[in-house]
Every structure is written in C-alpha cells, then in structure tokens.
Specification:
This protein has 292 residues and is α/β, with parallel strands linked by helices. It has helices spanning 2-10, 13-19, 24-38, 54-81, 98-111, 125-132, 180-184, 217-225, 235-243, 272-281, and strands spanning 43-44, 51-52, 87-93, 116-122, 138-143, 151-159, 161-164, 188-191, 211-214, 231-234, 259-266, 289-290. The protein is elongated, with a radius of gyration of 29 Å.
C-alpha cells in the first residue's frame, strides 16, 4: 500500500523508490507481487507510462484508508503507552458558564488534536451520578460533594448568583428590593435534576411558587429572556444577556450567597489528559485533596 501510494503521489516507479529509500527494482517487485497475489492488474502498462487500472484505483483509495488507520492506531498505542488516554469524558454541571469550559477544551484540542473529548451536560445530582456510574472521568462544577472514599477533589469556582427577569416582566419595574413574598406569586424557572437513579434535588424553591421546569441552563436563560418566568442564574451565564439588555437584574433584599463548586475524579492512576484538565480548571485553592 505504501508503494502504491508513493507511485501515485510521485508519478513514477523511480520517484516512488527515491521517496521510500528503495531501489526501483524493489518497487517493481512489490507491485508485481501484489498483482500476482490478488490476481488482478493494478497498472495498465500498454502505454509509455504505467497507469492505474480501475481495480488499481479502488485498491489505492481503500488502501489509503488502511494506511491512515494504521498510522492512527500506532499513534494511539504510543499515546496510551505514554499514559495519554484515547478519550476523556467530562461531566459539566449546568452551573458552569460556557466561557469557563469551552476555551479550555479548545486549548486541549489544539495541543492534543488526536485525543477525543466527550462532554456531558448534567445538572445537580446528574453530574455526580455520571462520575459514580463511570460515564465520566472528571466531574466539573459539583456543589456540596458527598464524602465518598476513592475520589480526588479540587476547588473549581465560587459561583455567584444574579436574579434575572425580562425587561418587560412586572418585577423589572418593582421600585424597591425584592423579598420572597414579592417573588412567590411569580413563576420561577428551574432546571431539572438530570440524575437517572438518584432522587432528584431542587434548589432554592419557595413554597407555593409556581414553576416552569426546563432541561438545561441554556433553556432557562432562553425562557427568562422571553419573560416566561423569573429566577437566579449563575452570574457567568447572566452577564452576556444583561450586557445586551435581554435581561435585567432587580435588586434583591436578601441576595443568594456564592456557592463553592469542585472538580471530582476517581483516584488511582489518572491519565495525562485527565491531569491536564484538572490543572487547567483548578482554582488557586491549592493541591488536590482526597475526600475522606
């Protein structure tokens, strides 16, 4: 396949031989042996220059796929031997703003273009569950992680909150700081817990407040912009919409406190790709801390 590819790319048996550091007779022998083994004519030699037959062209096109796959397989084996995983799976909680995660993924892709990255979008218990169920290698943005042996942990971000509504919503014209009683009669937009097996969790809901439940933080942002409800957004999600005046942030009488979030992963021998992401995503909180 290498000889056939070289002949086609370089235009002659002699040029192919030079490119492969072989003598021309060795290239001719290789092609003759290929034709004999397959029982077909790979080249039409009736003219002054050998030309690929249709069967030879098919062989070359498919053979190039084999050459690429062979090179990729060898490279993957070398990466694995050097402790680089062939794929890394990230479970990203809905609290994490896109601007926090995608630039890091882009940096990794530029540095390691052959390693696959799979990103799972999860919420609340679903982010934790993805790690426990071995659907993810690294969980990003988990708040209040349970104490489980065998997991590594680092501080990720302190998530600040902004209460938001559409500029056309009734609460946007409220003249004084909003209290819980002010909010209770207005529909809250909430993101559903994505856990499959764990009991679903709800965060910061008021008793008796009507709600609109959506599947993702992006959907929540969209519904808030459309005036379908009100609610808190992580500030990283809210800032672009506030800057474009698609949302406003009424003053709250009792603002929601910031929330510490963590990176979690299974301990043992983490691969180099996992270590790369841990180092890039960690806050300046210090070294990794095993969960007791």
């Amino acid at each position: 396949m290498q000889a056939l590819d070289a002949i086609d790319r370089h235009g002659s048996f002699a040029a192919a031989a030079a490119a492969l550091y072989r003598v021309p007779s060795a290239i001719s022998y290789t092609i003759n042996q290929l034709e004999s083994d397959l029982g077909i004519a790979v080249f039409d030699r009736s003219g002054h220059r050998a030309v690929l037959t249709p069967a030879g062209r098919l062989l070359l096109d498919e053979g190039r796929r084999i050459l690429v796959a062979t090179r990729e397989l060898g490279a993957a084996a070398r990466r694995l031997a050097d402790h680089w995983e062939p794929e890394l799976r990230l479970a990203v909680d809905g609290l994490v703003a896109p601007e926090r995660i995608w630039p890091v993924v882009a940096q990794f892709g530029a540095a390691h273009p052959s390693i696959n990255v799979r990103v799972l979008e999860e919420t609340l218990g679903g982010t934790w569950e993805a790690l426990v169920d071995d659907r993810a290698d690294l969980a990003i943005g988990i708040a209040e992680p349970p104490a489980v042996a065998g997991l590594g942990r680092r501080m990720f971000d302190a998530v600040a909150w902004t209460f938001c509504c559409s500029p056309t919503h009734a609460l946007a014209q409220h003249g004084s700081p909003l209290t819980e009683d002010d909010l209770r009669t207005h529909r809250a937009v909430v993101v559903a817990d994505s856990a499959r097996e764990l009991s679903p969790r709800n965060a910061h809901l008021l008793d008796g407040q009507p709600r609109l439940t959506v599947a993702s933080m992006r959907a929540k942002l969209d519904t808030l912009e459309r005036g379908l409800g009100v609610g808190y957004l992580p500030t990283g999600w809210a800032e672009p919409a506030l800057a474009r005046r698609r949302l406003v942030a009424p003053i709250m009488a009792a603002p929601r406190p910031t929330l510490a979030t963590y990176l979690l992963w299974r301990k043992g021998k983490p691969g180099r790709a996992l270590h790369w992401f841990i180092e890039r995503l960690s806050s300046s909180a210090g070294p990794s801390v095993p969960i007791p």
